[in-house]
Amino acid sequence: MRYPRGMPLGIFVLIAAITVLSIFAIERGESQREAAQLSARATTVASALERRANSSSAYLRAGAALLSTMEDIPASEFRRFVSELRLDADYRGADGIGWAQVVRPSQEEAFNALVSSQGSGNAQLHPRPSGNSPFAVPVTFLQPDTERNRRALGFDMYSEPIRRAAMQEAERTARPTATDRIVLVQEGEDDAAGFLIYMPVFEASAGGRSLKGFIFSPFNAQDFLQSALELEGAGSYGITLYDGDRREGEMLAQVNSDEGPSVRSVSQVVTIANNPWQLVITSREEAGLSGLSVATLIFGLLVGALLMLLVRMLTQQAQEDEASLAWFEEQASIRNSLTRELNHRVKNTLANVLSIIALTRRRADDINEFADGLDGRIRALSATHDLLTQSDWGSTPVRAVVDAELLPYAHGGDHDVQLEGPDVELAPNDALSLGLAIHELATNAAKYGSLSQPGGSVSVKWKTVTESLVRVEWLERGGPPVKQQRNRGFGTDLIERIVAHELKHPVELDFDPAGVRCVLLIPVRRATDFVLRAGRAEAAEA
User: Which sequence ranges are marked TM in the entry (predicted)?
Assistant: First the structure.
């Protein structure tokens, strides 16, 4: 009963929370399952890549063992060795197998002659060694003998830093070693990413052994990845291979690219010929909830809605009964408050009327003047009373009070009326006093001041001085000069005595020759009992 609407809503929120937790658990399980599948796929693809690389390394090891036993390596023997490897059947993904012998500075001419004698055309050692390197390692043979592979013949791989680093590491470890990301010479103007795997070939010497050259395999990275995926297909996953960090400039190859905020990814390090690379497997997350989550959501919302409706129906009748009792109690309280407030308002209004009659009678010369003056002032009280009645004798805006008193002059085409100030609410007694003061000032301006001739203007500006005080300024300009020698009128007495007494603040009234200026300080009081009564009545009606 204390929370007739909160209780059904609370039950619904509770059921909804349980439903959301259930959906969260379901979706989390689905996410974990997909992550496990993604990790498994990454492991499988990494294994396929390593198998391809190990197969290539095995061929290179066998070639290195064979070439180390040969004093000279003629092109015919190298071609026979490569043909026996059955490249087309067992060695996919590579551009072939090559031999690069060590060429020292004194052996450059002999190398060029060797290449020419083997039918390699105009292939020459390039670029020419600068003298900073102890030797060159140019491409001597590269099988299969295709137009693409002939482009690489004679190229000094030791002159390029990435290739040189891999060869030095292979020489140090005597193991097949892959380079970082490069562009193969045989690619020509194409910038497709690739890499090479080097295996050092040593020969016996007086000091133990010396480097004879390198047997190597060049790879187009995209072809290498595709050949590995022949062992383990990509399926619906995206696969990207990076040389080191996961950056755009380090990407070697990519299949089924998936990018964006809704993509799940897993990374795994894969070692290709003694060189660690990064394999990234991605899958696009399906938008929305899974079928089980949707069914759980619908069921939970239905249960929550039914329980909320049932509790609401049980409490609604009790709520209506309690509201009826409260309404009767409220009406009794309102009736007592109305009686007390009405007595207070009537006494104040009668006191104001008596004061107006007394002052008007002392200033009137005949009965007509007395009746006219009394009529206007009573109408000013009536206009403000209308505003208070509309607000149920609660607070009334300053602008509404000023508008009501200046309404006859606001739309005249021969003078200007300006109102400016923030939204400030006044208590009923203070609104009556302000309305009476504005009426007297407007009447005086219409008879003798700026509203009595074309071109005159009146501005009423107000602003809050403190939280409990507002300053209202009346200013006339453009009217006849204000007489400095004049008799004290009723309006001056009413404003400086009655209004100032009611507002409990002195009134500043200045008869400047340029126009009358009046400053009122009006208290901003707390809401009256009638406002509280109105609020309780509205709550009871709701």
Answer: 289-311
